[in-house]
Amino acid sequence: QVQVVESGGGLVQPGGSLRLSCAASGINFKLYRMGWYRQAPGKERELVASIISIGSTNYADSVKDRFTISRDNARSTMSLQMNSLKPEDTAVYYCRAGLPWGTTEYWGQGTQVTVSS
Q1: Sign of the alpha-carbon torsion through 37, 78, 8, 65
Q2: Which of 66, 72, 92, 111 is the most exposed place for a label (fewest CB within 10 A)?
């Protein structure tokens, strides 16, 4: 059974930091492109950052130089270090595991990040 589980969300003040984690099981983790997505109220889900097995990364322009994505293939985990958080970063953050070919993908249940004073 495949499981993708996020953790680490919460409430933080503007300018603060949070670290999100994603743990996957039941898949051959190193084959999967891993990504963080977010969805704010009334908005569509958007890609925040992604990382492939060898470590190449991709970031949304809005988070470049503030967020860092990483993965540990041995532990089947992925993380997102978020610094200099802004109120507009408030959203539910989702972890996605997707094969680079075909349509196989798995999503976590999401974790709330709220940036507010």
Answers
A1: negative
A2: 72
